[in-house]
Amino acid sequence: MKYVLLVSHGTLAPGLHNALGMLAGEGREDILSLGLENGTGADEFAGKLKMVLAGVTKEDEILLLADLVGGSPLTTAANVIAELDLIDRTVMIGGMNLPLALSAVLMKDGMELSDLKEMLLPEAREELKEFTISKENEEDEI
Predict the structure, then answer these.
(1) Most buried by CB count within 10 Å: which residue of 18, 23, 104, 121?
(2) Could you tell me the pTM of the whole model?
């Protein structure tokens, strides 16, 4: 199975997981998440992450999405994944957002992880844009 693992500071990852359930289907076993709560140390986070990953086998693949490149959730998750001997079957991306995560969940089973990464990064960047509402000219209403 290919898993999408979301990790973040605070409740971003669990909140994103919830939003993905609304958009991609509730109760999906292929989406996993864990947030590093304020006051939780790296060792405790690592222990919780090991429980989250308990069902992942060496035949599975992981697309790890994190809030910040170099942040504690991503670096700790990378260390745990390496300890579990899954690092060669994992692709890690920092700077996650909802369009990135949704595309990952919906597209992951149709392509190799390396191809998925190449498709996701430009697509996620493209989704960052200003939303504007143009006010109609009042003269047009006469």
Answers:
(1) 104
(2) 0.90
